[in-house]
TrEMBL record:
Belongs to the SUA5 family. It is found in: Cytoplasm. PROSITE patterns: YRDC. Its main location: cytoplasm. Transmembrane segments: none annotated. This is Threonylcarbamoyl-AMP synthase. Residues 17-203 form the YrdC-like domain. It comes from Sporolactobacillus kofuensis. Its EC number is 2.7.7.87.
């Protein structure tokens, strides 16, 4: 049975509250527990214990060749896990940690082989969410944690998303309310020169460039003839049950598509923004993912909206698209995966 511990993320001295102590005890015993981070909920286990890490893969139905991120609360924990933190990695740490940035660094072999899926590198991140930090400190462990969804589903941004996917499969869920950023961390490979973005996320390329100058993008992210360097990026992900289509040209085209589909007797959903919420009177379901003028709100709501479409029984979803500036890059990466790459020009 899956326990739920409710916590107020703003409560003082979280590390010593009964709920966090209970969740940390489970981790110490080798069980796996979901918890909020500033990006999405993670499904955590002791990164040094093979058996715990196995449980994570099993609960998610995750392919074993897809390595996990190790979550830490101190630099001492990073030094224990990685052989070196070179000056550029150190600069990123000083600027963006704690926060939504994951660094791929050379592994010391201290964490379980299952965490790194046999690679010589390990992905490490120091989350800023007070509940995540408290749980890591209370357990005194490096915590391996992928997003706490069933493999292939949208990442969870609320405890009830986790419950829906993993009830009965994990020891517990620390419910600290909605996450903030809403899309996952940016994954940066620090073993290349220049550093390479393996997954766009909560810290934008523009922000990274400002701090370290040169930053490359993994060509595998955009080119179909290259395999992504982050194994997770090659999988189908975030997909709602209905076929989703991105429509970059926007409102008029979407209205035209809705009209045609309605003639064929299909039930149609539109994924839109605050600014355009009244533009699709003929659609069966219109869901708003945020304000176009405030992309952070779109990132915050995106996965929840994708999950809500599954409750609405639509046959297809037509979606507006966004500029790839800043956080827009991560938004469009997740949206095009949710749409399985289907774009209607
Ligand atoms: O925001 C986040 O990063 C969330 C929260 C829970 O921290 N976690 C998350 O984990 O998104 P996950 O497992 O869903 O995604 C981790 C990504 C995958 O694409 C994986 O392939 C990649 O990081 N990755 C992990 N270790 C790697 C390594 N050593 N080299 C290259 N890619 C790696
Ligand atoms: Mg994930």
């Amino acid at each position: 049975e899956t326990q739920v511990w409710r916590v107020d993320p703003n409560a003082p001295d979280l590390e010593h509250t009964p709920q966090i102590i209970a969740a940390a005890e489970k981790l110490v015993q080798g069980e796996i527990v979901a918890f909020p981070t500033e990006t999405v909920y993670g499904l955590g286990g002791n990164a040094k214990l093979q058996d715990s890490v196995r449980k994570i893969y099993e609960a998610k139905g995750r392919p074993s060749d897809n390595p996990l991120i190790v979550h830490v609360a101190t630099l001492e924990q990073v030094r224990d896990i990685c052989t070196e933190i070179h000056p550029i990695a150190k600069k990123l740490i000083d600027t963006f940690w704690p926060g939504p940035l994951t660094l791929v660094l050379p592994s010391r072999g201290e964490v379980s082989n299952a965490v790194t899926a046999g690679l010589s590198t390990v992905a490490v991140r120091m989350p800023s969410h007070p509940v995540a930090r408290a749980l890591i400190l209370a357990s005194n462990l490096p915590i391996a944690a992928p997003s706490a969804n069933l493999s292939g589903r949208p990442s969870p941004t609320r405890a009830d998303h986790v419950f829906y996917d993993l009830d009965g499969r994990i020891a517990g869920i620390v419910d600290g309310g909605e996450t903030g950023v809403g899309v996952e961390s940016t994954v940066v490979d620090c073993t290349t020169t220049p550093i390479t973005i393996l997954r766009p996320g909560g810290i934008s390329k523009e922000q990274l460039v400002e701090v370290v100058g040169a930053v490359a993008d993994d060509p595998g992210l955009t080119r179909s003839d290259q395999i992504p360097k982050a194994p997770g990026m090659k999988y189908k992900h975030y997909a709602p049950q209905a076929m989703m289509y991105l429509v970059p040209s926007g409102k008029e085209k979407i209205c035209e598509l809705v009209a045609t589909e309605k003639n064929n007797g299909r039930r149609i959903g539109v994924l839109t923004t605050e600014e355009n919420r009244d533009s699709y009177p003929d659609a069966d379901v219109v869901l708003v993912c945020g304000k176009r003028s405030e992309p952070a709100t779109v990132a915050h709501n995106l996965f929840d909206v994708l999950r809500r479409f599954d409750q609405k029984n639509v046959d297809a979803i037509y979606s507006e698209t966004f500029s790839e500036e800043g956080i827009g890059k991560a938004i469009m990466n997740r949206m095009s995966k949710a749409a399985g790459g289907r774009i209607i020009e």
